[in-house]
Design a protein that fits this description.
The structure holds 2 protein chains of 2 kinds. Chain A is mainly alpha-helical. Chain A has 17 helices and no strands. Chain A has helices at 2-27, 34-67, 70-76, 81-89, 99-111, 116-125, 131-140, 146-165, 171-174, 177-187, 197-232, 235-239, 245-259, 266-272, 279-288, 294-300, 306-330. In chain A, α4 (81-89) runs antiparallel to α8. The termini of chain A are far apart. In chain B, α1 packs antiparallel against α2 (36-55) and α1 (5-23) runs parallel beside α3. The chains are: A mainly alpha, B alpha+beta. Chains A and B meet through α1, α2, α11, α12 and α14 of A and α1, α2, β2, α3 and α4 of B.
């Protein structure tokens, strides 16, 4: 009875807001200072762009959790960790979900028994090693085929080396206690097979909601932080030292972290800066951005510990810097 | 299982906001048009799924501060009217998007097509980035729509934002305007339709050798699709 009362009250509040929204938006009378308006627009841009990918990832994760047997998943992958991580690096080819959608998918894979270290390799490599990102990179840098080759190789190496470095780190140092509890609880749930369709839908809806309640707040927080930082930090600060190679590479990595753009189209964004930054810095941007940015870190915080995320971020940064330096001095 | 009603209300609000923006043709103020159908499809699936879950009576869990903040953001998304990026973002990002065009004796651009009248800001920005020769651009008539902004050196531009993915990667495409009495009357940040011709930019040749000498200026309402893609 009390639950129903809460639902009725919540529904009335929501409907009231919807009606108020229709009224206010038809008036179009709200004028905010430019800095606040831009913060709102940029934050919502990140949120609305990432939302469908996160939803897709949650759907795939829910299906994996509900219907995929752990034994099937283990059987599909190589036994040896180095080959298993290599195989996971290319799994983005079959599941090109975009980096924010990969997070709920990764959670589903870990719930089904994959090791956090192996899943990190998947999370880092899949956004770059997939047909959509590869094709858009080729299209954007059609006059320089080396860009896509270097990008893919660097992503594969960085993702697998980090997976290898973390191979012997205890599980409880990598994933949060909350997520460990989710994994433990899920391991006791048997896969439902012979049930009426209605019950399948209810189970799916229930698990979808559980994942949404974990991930959507993190997505919102990440979007707001990205919007605020982009409004407050003029891009000219980042582009003003583009002439010095090492600093240029560093600044483009910082820009990749801040701008939080989707890997499927970041090549076009990077292309627009190719007149200002050297190619080494552009490639560092294309390698770092899909792996780590404000939005992804916020989503990963639901699963991995802060210390693990800090370690991964530093390692990805080092790998991206090294890639940029190799491109600048050796190629 | 205990759930948080606040979070499901928040997520449902985000889904309704997206659908409402799409219905008003304003979703493209935030994301590239190529993502519209994809976004609508999955947001609709999420909305239906969450409503089904919401109707399954479950025990309620109290919300924390983060949940309250997310709910507040979600409800504000419903209330706030959709707006484009302002001239402040154009000023913030103008340096990173300016391709310095140089006066050149040679150009890779094929000047077979002499008619610029159908060129918009995006077309002309791309043309200028190819280092056109004087003969290819001087005295060419143009008519452009965009918003006005001014850089730190006092150079005025007519501009539009170009989007690759979403508002976060928007960068201003700009065409310099020659300083004259017509241009001095425009309001920074407002939308205009201007007509004129390309001339040598006497005041700022080192950075922008060519500029549009404006002959007529007409204030316009911001178009439904203010960005270029």
């Amino acid at each position: 009875m009390r639950v129903m009362q809460n639902q009725i009250i919540s529904s009335i509040i929501l409907i009231s807001f919807i009606l108020a929204s229709i009224f206010i938006q038809t008036q179009n009378s709200i004028v905010l200072p430019n800095v606040i308006q831009d913060t709102i627009t940029l934050s919502l841009g990140v949120l609305y762009e990432a939302l469908p990918f996160v939803i897709l990832g949650i759907i795939l994760s829910t299906l994996i959790q509900t219907y995929l047997r752990q034994s099937t998943l283990i059987r599909l992958l190589p036994k040896k960790p180095v080959f298993r991580r290599a195989a996971l690096s290319f799994s983005g080819t079959f599941m090109p979900v975009c980096e924010c959608g990969n997070v709920p998918l990764a959670r589903g894979l870990m719930i089904k028994g994959l090791r956090p270290q192996d899943v990190i390799t998947f999370l880092l490599a899949a956004p770059i090693i997939n047909p959509v990102t590869i094709l858009t990179t080729i299209h954007a840098f059609s006059t320089n085929k080396n860009v896509v080759i270097i990008r893919v190789i660097a992503a594969f190496l960085i993702a697998n080396i980090i997976g290898w470095l973390l191979n012997n780190v205890p599980r409880n140092q990598l994933i949060t206690d909350n997520f460990e509890a989710v994994c433990h609880e899920s391991s006791h749930k048997k896969i439902q097979r012979k049930l009426p369709l209605r019950e399948h839908i209810q189970i799916f809806a229930s698990r979808f909601r559980e994942e949404s309640e974990t991930l959507i707040p993190s997505l919102v927080m990440g979007s707001v932080i990205a919007g605020v930082i982009q409004t407050l930090i003029p891009r000219s600060i980042l582009t003003s030292i583009s002439s010095e190679p090492v600093l240029a590479i560093f600044m483009m990595i910082v820009l990749a972290f801040i701008v939080s753009i989707c890997a499927n189209v970041d090549a076009f964004f990077a292309l627009s800066l190719s007149g200002i930054f050297p190619m080494s810095a552009i490639i560092a941007f294309l390698v770092f951005g899909p792996m780590i940015d404000i939005k992804i870190l916020s989503l990963l915080r639901t699963t991995y510990t802060p210390r693990a995320l800090a370690t991964i971020t530093v390692l990805v940064f080092m790998g991206s810097m090294l890639t940029g330096l190799v491109v600048h001095y050796a190629i | 299982m205990r759930y948080k009603n606040s979070l499901i209300i928040a997520t449902i609000s985000f889904c309704i906001s997206v659908i409402w923006l799409f219905a008003q043709n304003k979703l493209t103020l935030y994301i590239h048009p190529r993502y519209e159908l994809f976004t609508m499809a999955f947001v609709s699936i999420a909305l239906i799924t969450l409503i089904i879950s919401y109707l399954q009576n479950s025990e309620h869990q109290h919300m924390n501060r983060t949940d309250s903040f997310v709910l507040l953001i979600a409800l504000l998304c419903l209330l706030m009217p959709a707006k484009t990026l302002t001239v402040r973002t154009a000023e913030n990002r103008s340096q990173s998007s300016q391709v310095s065009n140089k006066v050149s004796g040679l150009s890779s651009y094929d000047s077979f097509n002499q008619d610029f009248s159908y060129f918009d800001v995006a077309d002309l920005s791309a043309f200028l980035s190819n280092n056109p020769t004087k003969e290819q651009i001087i005295d060419k008539q143009v008519e452009l729509e965009g918003f006005i902004f001014e850089d730190s050196d006092g150079q005025k531009f007519i501009a539009r934002f170009k989007l690759s993915c979403c508002a976060v990667d928007a960068r201003p495409l700009t065409i310099p305007l020659l300083k004259n009495d017509v241009v001095s009357s425009v309001i920074i940040g407002s939308w205009y339709r201007i007509s004129g011709k390309f001339v040598l930019n006497e005041g700022n040749q080192s950075q922008y050798p060519y500029a549009v000498e404006t002959t007529t200026v007409e204030g316009i309402v911001e178009p439904l699709e203010p960005y270029v893609y």
